[in-house]
Protein 1
Amino acid sequence: MTGATRSRLSWLAVAFALASACARHDARQVTDLDGRAVDPFEGAPRATVLVFVSTQCPISNRYAPELGRLYAELAPRGARFYLVYPVVAESDAAVREHVHDYAFPFAALRDPGHRLVGRAGASVTPEVAVFDRGGALAYRGRIDDRQVDFGQARTEPTRRDLKLALEAVLADRAPEVTTAPAIGCSIPPGR
C-alpha cells in the first residue's frame, strides 16, 4: 500500500468518525431530556403512546391529571407512554420544569426534527398517537371529547378515545375509532 493510499484511507476513517459523531448529535434526532437518542418503539412494547404536548398550551396542561390516571391504569398492562415536546423554541429547562410542575409520571422526549410528529401525523398539542406492538399507527387524535372547541369545554368527557383505543390495542384488536379530531395549539414547523 502506498503512502498516498494510506493517507486517503486515514482521511476516510476520520471523515467517517466525524460523520458518525455528527449523526449522534443530529438536531433532528428524538432525544431524552439529557440529549441521548431514544427510540420509543425499541423493545416492541404491547402499545406505545406518544402524547404531543407543549409547555405553553393551556389545553395540553389541563390534560395532565387525566394522562397520569391513564398511565397508572394502563402502563402495568403493557402500554409505554412518552410525552413528546415538538416545539423547537421551548428550552430544555422549560420542558424539565413543565414535566415537574405537572407531575407527569412518564418519560419526556424532545422531537425538534419532527420525526415522531411526522410518523404520527400530529398537528396540535395535545394530540396522542397509539402504535401497536409492530409499530403500526392504531389511533391518532384527541385524548377525549372534553375540549369541544377553543374556549369551550365540558366538565366531564362523554367519550374517552385514548383509553378505548389503548384497551383495544392491548387486547390485540384494532380500535373501533382510529382517528378523532384533536383541538389544541398548533405545532410549529421543526428543524
Protein 2
Amino acid sequence: MPRLRLLDLVKNALIFTVTQMPKAIMKKLTACNLLSLFMLVIAPGILHSQSIESKLAGLHIQLDSIAKAQAVITEKIEALKLERIRRDLLIAGLPSDEKKSNIVWHAAYVLEYDEPFEQARWVAHIITPDVLSGIVSRTNDFRPDSLIKTGSAVEADYFLKQLQPDSTFKYDAFGYDRGHLAPSADFRWSAKALSESYLYSNMSPQLGAFNREAWASVEDKVRGYLYSNPTSQLYVVTGPVLKDGLPKIERGVNKVSIPEFYWKVAIDPLKKKGIGFIMPNKKITEAIESYAVTIDSVERYTGYNFFSNLPVNIQSDAENQRVLADWFPLIAKGDVEPVNATELKRGQINTEIAKQWINSNQEITVTGTVVSGRASKSGNMLLNLDKQFPNQVFTVFIKKENIPNFSYDILTYLKGKKVLVTGKISGMDGMPVMYVDYEKQVLVQ
C-alpha cells in the first residue's frame, strides 16, 4: 500500500475515533494517549489488511513463475517428442529404391523431393497417441520450403491473387487443391509440426472432389486407428505416382506435374498390423475400402521398400495383410465388403456403383449381402446390402402390401445371405433404393 494512502487512513481513523468520544474523555487525552489508542485499536486492522494484500501479491508472483516454468518444460517435452519421431522413422527405415535421394528433414516428417516434378516423391511421418488430445487448429500458413536447395513449389503454382481497391483479393485458381501428403491434422498436438505441414514441399495437385472427399476420408480412417489403439504409434508414408509424361499445371510458374494416382501405407509395428491404399486423382464414387490393398501391393506398384529396418517377422505379418476391420470399425460390426468388380458376372453390378444407376429407368441386377433390415413405422420392410443403417449404400424397399408376396419371413431368412436383386433403382435422399414387389426379384446365391 502506498505510504501517502496509509497516512491518510491513519489520519482519518484518528479524527473519526476522537470525534465520536465524549467531551469529558477528549479533554483528558494527550498526544501520547492518542498514539497509544491508535496502536491498540485502529492500527491492527489496517496492518492486517496490508498483510493480506501483500500475501496475495506474493502468491500471484509465484503463480506467474510456475506458469513460465511450465511453459519452458512443455516446450522441452515437445522438442523431445519431435526428436523421438525422427529417431523412430530412421529405426523403421525410410522408403528406398534405386534412384538418387534428395532427403529433407522437418520437425515431424521427412520427404524426398523430386525437382523435375516439383513435389515430394514421398513423405514419411508418425501419428502418435498425442493426436488424441491435440487441440492445435489449422494454420493455413502455406509457404515455400527453404530447405529445398533447388527451390520448392510456390503459391503461384496453384493460383494467382490480385489486391483489389477495397483491400480484398481476387483469386484466379488453376483448378487444383494444394493437397497435403502428410495431413496437418496428424500433427495437431504440435504447433511447430502442424505449421510445417503447410510447406509447399508437402503439397501435390489434387482435384478438389478427390482431396476434400475420398482422400480426406482415407486420412481420417488411418488417423482414426489410434482411437481404437491409443498406445500405438502409426508409421505412415504417402506419395504421388510420378512418371514421365504427366500433365502439368501450365499456368503455374514452376509447371508442377499433376499425378494420376496417389498411394499411402501405414503400419503399427507394436500390433503387427498394416494397410495400404492406391487411389486415382478423381472424384471417387466407390466405397474407399475398395481401394485398400496390402503394403506389399504398394511396394510392387511403386518400387519402394517400406519399413525395411523393422524385424522380418513384423514386416512379413503386417505388410501382407488387408484386414479392413482394423481400419474401418463399422465393418467389424457386421458390414461386409462389396463384391469385387472382377467377380461380377455379365449384367450384374455391386452396391458401390449402384448410385450411378439412380433413375436410369433400366432393369438392373445388384449383388450384395443383406447385413441389416428393419420395418418402418408404416410397416414397410427395408433391407440394407453390404453396409448397415445409417451408413447404408444400397437399400431394398418392400412395401407393406407386397410383403405377403414372399413365402418366408423376409428379414429372418435373408439376413446374412448374399443375394441378387433385380429391378429399377430410384433415389432416396441421394442414396440408391430398389423397390421390390415379388419374391422372384430376390435370388439367394
Protein 3
Amino acid sequence: MRDMAIEYAYNYCIDITRSHYENFPVASRLIAKQLRKPISVIYAFARTADDFVDEGDDEVDTRLEKLDKYVENLDSLNRGDKQDHPVFIALSDVIRRFQLPLKPFYDLLTAFRMDVTKKRYANFAEVMHYCSHSANPVGNLILHLYNKATKDNLARSDAICSALQLINFLQDIEQDYIESGRIYLPQDEMARFAVSEEHLRQRRADSAMLALVDMQINRILTLMNQGMPLGWTLTGRIGFELRMTIYGGLRILYRLHQQRQDVFARPRLTGRDWCWMAWMAVQAHPQPFTLQKQGCLR
C-alpha cells in the first residue's frame, strides 16, 4: 500500500512538471534517468508553492496561509511524521534517499512569501537577497542530488542561478509590473538614472532606461562569467545540461542588449539560437562571454 502511495505521489509530481512550460526543459533527457523523478518532485514543490502566490483570486492573507501550510508540512516532514499530500509524500522519499538538506526548501518558501508581501527593492543587495532564496536553492539541491555540493561548486552555482534570476527580471520588466505590481530594478539605481515608474507604465525606452538596463546586463554578465567554470567542472550529461542553461541565459542576455528600440520586449530563442548554444556547450573549455558582436552571435 505504501509503495502504491509513493508511486502515485511521484506520478502526481511528474504530471505537474509536464503540464508547465519553462524556458529550459525540467528533468529532460539530458538528466541522468535516476534523477528525473527526484528533480520533478523538487519542481512540483516549487511550482505548487509559486501558484499560491500568483494564481487565482485569493486575498493576500489566504496566499500567505497556504504558504504557511507548506512550511508546516516541511516541519512535519523534518520530524519524520507521515505525509498525506502527494507532493510531500514524494518529497519525503527524495529527501531520505538523497540526504537532501531542508534549508533550500524553506528558502524557496521565504522567496514566495516575499513575492506576496514585497513589491519594491531598495537596492541591489535586497535583490540579491531575494535571489539567494528564489533561485540559488535550486542549484544547491541539484548539486546535492549529484553528490557534487562542494564549497566551490555551490558558490559558482549561486552565481549562475542568481544571474539567471536577474535575466528573468530583465525580460519580464513589463509583465512583472503590469500583472503583479512588482519592480525588481533597484529603486536607488532607478533614481540615479532618472528612471521612474512612468517608464514602465508607458514602455518608455529612452536613453535613461537604456542606460539603466545596460548596467543590469553588464552586472549579470559578470556574475555568469564567475559561475561559468562549473559547467566544465561537472562532467557528463549534467555538465552539458548546465552549459546549455548557461549559454541559454547568455543568449537571452545578448538579445536583451540588442533590443535598443524596445527593452520591454521579451526575447524568444530561435532554432539558430539553440544551435549556437549547443555549439558553445560542446567546447572543451569555458569561453568568457562578452557583448561585443562576434560571428557566431550575428
